[in-house]
Design brief:
Alpha-Beta Plaits, two-stranded antiparallel sheet, 3 helices
Amino acid sequence: MKMIVAIIQPSKLDDVRDELYKAEVNLMTVTEVLGHGRQKGVTEIYRGAREMGNLLRKVRLEIAVNDSFVEPTVRAIIKAAKTGETGDGKIFILPLDQTIRIRTEERGSIAIG
């Protein structure tokens, strides 16, 4: 089991979700987050003064998958989120030691769905 964490552009969320559904990945948690990568944010003019907006709006997806769904999930995210421009985002794949479905107390791969 793996936990896939993807940080993407907010404007790509609907496209990514649609591609994940096509890949039969239906379970995800979505959070609005702030952050920056190498671009270190953007500079904006606010009320005539230059301000450094160090943190950009992003969307964080957390998706727990069984091992056989790791590559289809990653491919779906890349297909929908990639523009080729700086700021497209990142995907992190982490080991997932245990999953427990609270309602039934099922554990492991079956608890993911």
